[in-house]
Design brief:
The complex is a heterotrimer of chains A (about 400), B (about 290) and C (about 150). Chain A is an alpha+beta fold. Helices cover about 30% and strands about 25% of the residues of chain A. Chain C has helices spanning about 5-10, 20-25, 110-120, 120-145, and strands at about 30-35, 40, 50-55, 60-65, 70-75, 80, 95-100, 105-110. The chains are: A alpha+beta (about 400), B alpha/beta (about 290), C alpha+beta (about 150).
Chain lengths: ~400, ~290, ~150
């Protein structure tokens, strides 16, 4: 055990039993500790009161339209990838009141939402792809012409404990999107879960000064090269066993020149416009607003809630919807995610987490759809010039 | 605290610190312009909170308890903090808006969006092509151009509507004709024989309009199909594509780039638009269901 | 012989690119005309033996619609061409043409020109080419009017 302060870039080793103290250190600092828990057959993000709440010994099997939890042979705390929740659930909540308004006589008073107590979250178990997803939503809400004050407040006090993935999921393709599996930046701490010769421990990398402060409260030892090599091998293994691949070469131009590709018609035959993909996607940020009043008509509120470009009225404008067909809506979502997002925010909107593939009821796979378009780039509906020849 | 990227300064000039909070404005006048079009004239409750704006920008107008809609500002920027908004009744909110009376209160968020490039008109001819209610977002540009008339050369206003009864700001157009050195040509799609004036779509006026296409800035606003064909005629006549501007429109919920609704290809109409130089949207203009 | 209207025709954009000999032929079928405001140039059903190049003024193309009365669907102004029914059988006008303002135009004798086109197919080609352009423009313009784009859905 060392009493010396930990610096950014330091790597140490924590035994599994001592991870609890890391969580306690966060709790005593007033953080609301959130992380993966097991509920109703899925691993979802919820409050962690201790490491006991983590889904130890569980893993997830994911495929197109399929998610099953299975018991592991070991007792790994983070032996799975990502579930239906993403961290946007907390940073960009599904339902939020924006303000209240009251009529007073002939006047109008707007009452902004008070900060009851500034939210202070600690996320435990953030995957590399999710770190990128958070950074992408930062671009939307913090780095544009306008800043979302609510997002800013929630983001400012955030403590991020990342976890490097020990295995790749069936629908994962972070390696293709260059968003993982290794967490490289954007975290306070990054853990790699290792099991070697009966030992169950974590390699912990310090990402920020406050990360070092918190970590120093948990019993730890300096890491040696064997530990680091063990971690590196594990990550290499994960990288080479991705469930999916997406060829991103020239992807923006590819989708820009294929607005009329017949593959969109093929997807239309399957897509239900159910909007699951947008709900589970960690970068999707679209919302709508609802204005409501009470019965007296003296008090009004505006609420913001998650919305999806898959709904028919998403693009409604006096008279009709611009994207009236499911074909155009699927095309909008995929083209936005992989192409126009790049023009808008300088990076792809996709982090390769595979959630959209897992949670699509009919298993539509964004990597397969893109591949099909690439394979017959610029194809149009084939015209048989001889068909009606006499 | 872990952040991957720098956080920029929030924009607060002319806007409330939280751009989602409406400011109270009181209705000074509700004017019926044509059968289905009306104008609201409003002033800020807190005179210190008024703002000026650039021609082409829009506000989000809030009707208490009903909802919010984006409407272009159609008043003279020099008259700020007075604001005017001309709109048709097209849905729940505009319907409720039409029922508001002088003295009632509403909410305003803004000004948002890009503006007509009035500065580019210096030393050039200006063609303003408006269709139907498209004249409303262009009116502030006309005011600005007339306020500094000597800066640009010829000003040509080409305006088309459905019928003579639908001509917006008709009296004002007559006044301008008399007072300022500008060429105004009005046309309608159909008319009774009592109409003394052009009949035909506004695009037909472009080939013979008196401007020098090699040195012109064009500003076009109206229904999308009208803008498409108008731009085509302007380009055919030799107006530079990068000096041809249009105002696009899409569903908006926030007006500040967060809700995602107003996306038009790679652009957000609320912040990259509504005014666009033609080359920016050339590839998607007219493309179905974008 | 140089017809006094030749220079006007030569300068006009509609006849641009035409050979001198064709201009001469056409000039031979042309004359200056003036109409007062509110004057009927022709009625629907009249024989279409002329077409007009409007120099100054404004002409309304109108239909009589039961209950609605006289409706203007198009106006033709300075520099524009009025009428192509002289080119196609049965050579009858399909609408009324009425001046809104005092109008000064060049009138062309369609019968005369039709005969010259039959004799000189090169002339015919040049005439049809130009009128085809006019018809296309009017068709596109009419389609836009049909779309009723300023309606409630615009």
């Amino acid at each position: 055990m060392t009493a010396e302060p930990l610096h950014v870039g330091d790597t140490v080793v924590i035994e599994k039993e001592n991870l609890e103290q890391l969580l306690q250190a966060l709790a005593t600092r007033g953080y609301e500790v959130l992380g993966p828990t097991l509920r109703e057959g899925a691993i979802v993000y919820d409050r962690l009161t201790s490491t006991e709440d983590l889904p130890a010994g569980w893993t997830d099997e994911q495929a197109g339209g399929k998610y099953r939890l299975k018991r592991r042979k070991d007792n790994a705390l983070f032996g799975y990838v990502v579930g239906p929740h993403s961290w946007k659930k907390f940073l960009h909540p599904p339902l939020q009141r924006l303000w209240q308004a009251a009529r007073n006589g002939k006047g109008l008073r707007i009452l902004p939402e008070e900060e009851r107590s500034k939210p202070k979250y600690a996320f435990i178990g953030v995957r590399a792809c999710e770190l990128h997803a958070i950074a992408i939503q930062d671009k939307v809400f913090l780095e544009g012409q306008f800043v979302d004050p609510g997002y800013k407040a929630r983001r400012e006090n955030l403590f991020l404990v990342a976890v490097n993935c020990g295995q790749a999921g069936g629908n994962c393709f972070c390696a293709s999107m260059k968003t993982g599996p290794k967490a490289t930046s954007g975290f306070d701490l990054a853990l790699t879960e290792l099991a070697q010769d009966g030992r169950h421990y974590f390699l912990a990398e310090v990402g920020t000064v406050s990360g070092g402060e918190v970590l120093s409260e948990a019993p730890h030892q300096p890491a040696d090269d064997t530990d680091r090599q063990h971690a590196a091998r594990l990550l290499d293994h994960t990288t080479r066993h991705m469930g999916r691949r997406l060829d991103t070469r020239g992807i923006k131009e590819l989708l820009y020149r294929n607005y009329e590709h017949p593959q969109w018609d093929s997807v239309t035959e399957r897509c239900l416009s159910c909007a699951n993909c947008t709900m589970v996607c960690p970068t999707c940020f679209c919302t709508t607003v609802e204005d409501v009043t009470d019965l007296t008509g003296q008090h009004a509120e505006r609420w913001r809630r998650w919305d999806s470009c898959f709904t028919v009225d998403f693009s409604y404008i006096h008279g009709g919807s611009v994207r009236a067909t499911p074909r155009s809506r699927y095309r909008q979502w995929m083209t936005h995610k992989l192409a126009t997002w790049i023009d808008q925010f300088g990076v792809s909107g996709c982090v390769g987490c595979g959630r959209c593939i897992t949670w699509c009821p009919v298993g539509i796979d964004i990597t397969v759809e893109t591949g099909a378009i690439r394979e017959s780039d610029s194809a149009k509906v084939p015209v048989d010039h001889n068909k009606d020849a006499p | 605290m872990a952040t991957m990227l720098e956080q920029p300064e929030a924009v607060t000039a002319d806007l409330t610190p939280d751009p989602m909070l409406p400011m109270p404005y009181r209705i000074q006048r509700v004017k019926q312009e044509t059968d289905d079009t009306f104008t609201l004239e409003i002033l800020p409750e807190d005179s210190g909170k008024g703002f000026s704006f650039a021609p082409g920008q829009f506000n989000m107008l809030y009707v208490f308890g009903v909802g919010e809609v984006p409407i272009s500002i159609s008043s003279d920027p020099d008259d700020a903090p007075l604001l005017k908004h001309t709109t048709r009744v097209v849905g729940t909110v505009t319907k409720a808006m039409r029922q508001l009376k002088r003295g009632e209160i509403m909410g305003i968020r803004g000004p948002f969006g890009s503006h007509w490039p009035v500065e580019e008109a210096t030393g050039r001819d200006v063609v303003i092509a408006a269709g139907g209610i498209g004249l409303a977002p262009l009116r502030p540009a006309l005011y600005r151009l007339m306020a500094e008339r000597e800066k640009c050369r010829k000003i040509v206003l080409l305006y088309g509507t459905r019928t003579p009864e639908d001509i917006l700001y008709r009296q004002e157009l007559e006044q301008w004709r008399g007072k300022f050195d500008l060429e105004i040509q009005v046309t309608v799609d159909r008319a009774a024989s009592s109409w003394r004036g052009n009949v035909g779509v506004v695009t037909t006026m472009i080939p013979r309009a008196p401007f020098d296409p090699t040195n012109t800035v064009a500003m076009v606003c109206g229904p999308e199909v009208m803008m498409r064909f108008t731009v085509m005629e302007l380009l055919k006549r030799g107006v530079a594509p990068e000096r041809t501007y249009l105002s696009a429109e899409r569903n908006m919920k926030c007006g500040i780039g967060f809700c995602g609704h107003c996306q038009y290809g790679p652009t957000f109409i609320c912040k990259d638009g509504p005014v666009f130089a033609f080359p920016r949207i050339a590839a998607i203009l007219g493309r179905s269901e974008i | 012989m140089i017809h006094t209207l030749e220079p006007i025709l030569r300068d006009h954009p509609f006849f641009q690119g035409m050979e001198d000999r064709h201009i001469q032929l056409i000039a031979g079928c042309s004359m200056n005309v003036r109409f007062e405001a509110g004057q009927v140039i022709f009625h629907e059903g009249d024989p279409a033996d002329h077409f007009y190049l409007i120099r100054e003024g404004l002409v309304s193309v109108q239909f009589v619609i039961p209950h609605d009365g006289l409706t203007t669907v198009q106006t033709v102004g300075g520099g524009e061409v009025l009428g192509w029914s002289w080119l196609f059988a049965p050579y009858r006008w399909h609408f009324d043409a009425r001046t809104q303002q005092p109008t000064h135009a060049l009138a062309f004798d369609g019968k005369c020109l039709r005969a010259k086109c039959d004799e000189d197919h090169d002339l015919g080609y040049e005439i049809y080419k130009r009128f085809m352009q006019i018809v296309t423009e009017r068709l596109e313009s009419t389609r836009l009017q049909l779309l009723d784009m300023y309606g409630n859905h615009a």
